[in-house]
Structure formats: structure tokens, C-alpha cells
Amino acid sequence: MENKQKPQIISISSGKGGVGKTSFTINLAAALSAKSRKVLLIDGDLGLANVDVMLGLNVKHTLRETVEEGRDPLEILVEVMPGFFVLPASSGVPEMASLSYEEQAFLIDSLEQIIGNFDFVLVDTAAGVGESVLWFNNWADKNITLLSPDPTAITDAYALIKIMKTRYNKEDFHLIINNVKSKKEAQEVFDNMSTVLENFLGVKPCYQGAIPQDSAVSMAVRQQKPFLIAQPKARASLAVTEICNKILS
Ligand SMILES: Nc1ncnc2c1ncn2[C@@H]1O[C@H](COP(=O)(O)OP(=O)(O)O)[C@@H](O)[C@H]1O
Ligand SMILES: [Mg+2]
Closest Cα to residue 139, out of 7, 1, 244? Predict the structure, then answer.
């Protein structure tokens, strides 16, 4: 692979778990690669990884070996489909979920060595507001926060954005409302969140899009395939394609 210019690094977070980060990130990667972009998806849930499971990958090496043994991330990469590469992480390894400052710096440095090969780097972060979530968000050029109409998903997304603003002075947040019954519901959730963010943090978020509640999503999780591939005409697939086009525009 030859080195190109710096890619756009996008982190995907939610605060709360189970909001749909991994499903969305896998499908955004599939959508971007279908448009001839070279995409690296990093499983940022370092201690409880599941990108590999959702894609049905047979993983031999993980980012744990980069952190612990200095293994070149290029030796860990798995190509899922043309132009869509995954850096898998380890699961059930609590040490990986709480890296020291030096280990974090080493991991980011190792990732920086290889990302020039890609157009987009997507980081599917862990749930919660742990250190890895914060430094992956800080590393990224663009922060996408996923929320659902569920009140706890809304408060947790707010908590994450508040920390990113107060600790790192990030101002630019892109919201995706997942699991909605209608565009109207998505717009209402966005408007409420936007009002709270403006009033309490002085942050004006961008509306990145919405994804409907769709059985194609859970079906694809069970089939271990992106829904965009399994059911390209499903409503969720059309929604992710729309978000992908917005990111490319
Ligand atoms: N738009 C949606 N419609 C229906 N089910 C969804 C949708 N988004 C996510 N899900 C379901 O929610 C569950 C959690 O999704 P996942 O991507 O693992 O969340 P996270 O990575 O945030 O923990 C999955 O079983 C998935 O099928
Ligand atoms: Mg996940």
C-alpha cells in the first residue's frame, strides 16, 4: 500500500451501550467502500470487542498484540470486502479496557503509521465515558454521537458531549438518531438535544441523519453481515446510504 494524504478520522460513540454504534459503523464502512473509498474500521472497544463477531470474521491477531508486543497493525488488518478493512480488538481482556497513558500513546502512534493508506478511519468506541472513549474522540477529526429516543440514551449522550466540550474544548458534534419510528420523532429528539446542548454547554450540534427501527438490522446482526449487503433496499440501508452521501458531500 502506498502512502497518501491524511484520512478523515471519525469516531462513533453514544455514552450508553446497545444504541447501535457497531451496527451503524459496520454499515457506514460498507457504504463508503461501495463508493470506492478505502476505509479502516478500528474496533475501539478494546476490552470487549465485537466488530469481528458482527462481521463473522475469523480473527487471528488483534490490537492487543500491537499494544503488548508491538505488532505492526498492518499484520492485524482483515479485509472484509474490497476497500473495507477492520482492525479487530480483543474481548474479555480487562487490561485492554484501561490502558496506561504510555500504552495509549503507543497505540495511537502505531495507528498513525498506517492510516495514510486510507480515505476514512472509523472508530467504533466502547460504551460509557471511559478513558479510551475520550482519547479516541479527541484523536478523531469528527465526532458522531448516536442516540435513540430512549431517555437514558439521551442523558448518556449529553454526558459524553459535556465531557468532550469541558475537557478537550471540542465544539463540533454530529448527531445521529437511531431506532426511530418516524422522521418526525428523529427531528424532535434532535431538537430537544440541541436546545439542551445550546443552553447548558453553548454547543450547536449538526444533524447528521436518522436511522429507522428496522428488523433488517437485527436480522443482519444474526447473519453476521452488514444490513446494507444483506438487504440493500431495507429502510435502514437507505438511511445509512443517505448519511454516507452527506459525509462525502
Ligand atoms: N435501527 C435499528 N433497528 C432495529 N434494531 C437495531 C437498530 N439499531 C440497532 N439495533 C439493535 O440493537 C442491538 C445493539 O446494537 P449494537 O450495534 O451492538 O449497539 P452498540 O454497539 O451501541 O452497543 C443490536 O442487536 C441491533 O440489532
Ligand atoms: Mg458495540
Answer: 7
CATH code (residue 135): 3.40.50.300
Q: Determine the average pLDDT of the residues in 116-130.
A: 96
Please measure the distance between the N-terminal and C-terminal CA atoms of the chain and give it in whole angstroms. Answer: 26
Best probe residue, ligand 1, of 23, 181, 221, 228 (max atoms within 8 Å of C-beta): 23
Q: Which of 48, 180, 221, 242 to mutate to test the pocket of ligand 1 (most atoms within 8 A of CB)?
A: 221
Residue 237 Cα to ligand 1 middle (Å): 13
Return d(Cα 118, Cα 1) in angstroms, integer: 9
Q: pTM of the prediction?
A: 0.97
User: Which cell numbers hold the place of 5?
Assistant: 494524504
Q: Of the given ranges (2-6, 16-20, 132-136, 183-187), which has the lowest mean pLDDT?
A: 2-6
DSSP letters along 8-49, please? EEEEEE-SSSSSSHHHHHHHHHHHHHHTT--EEEEEE-TTB-
The predicted pLDDT at position 1 comes to 47
Answer whether residue 159 is part of any domain.
yes
Domain contains 98 = yes
Ligand 1 close to Cβ of residue 218 (< 6 A): yes
Residue 195 lies in a domain: yes
Q: Is 236 in the pocket of ligand 1 (CB under 6 A)?
A: yes
Number of domains in the chain: 1
- Give the residue numbers spanning the domain of 87: 8-248
Q: Are 30 and 84 within 8 A, CB to CB? A: yes
Q: What is the bridge-based pairing of β-strands 173-180 and 206-212?
A: parallel
CA of 148 relative to ligand 1 center, distance in Å:
10
> Is 3 a member of any domain?
no
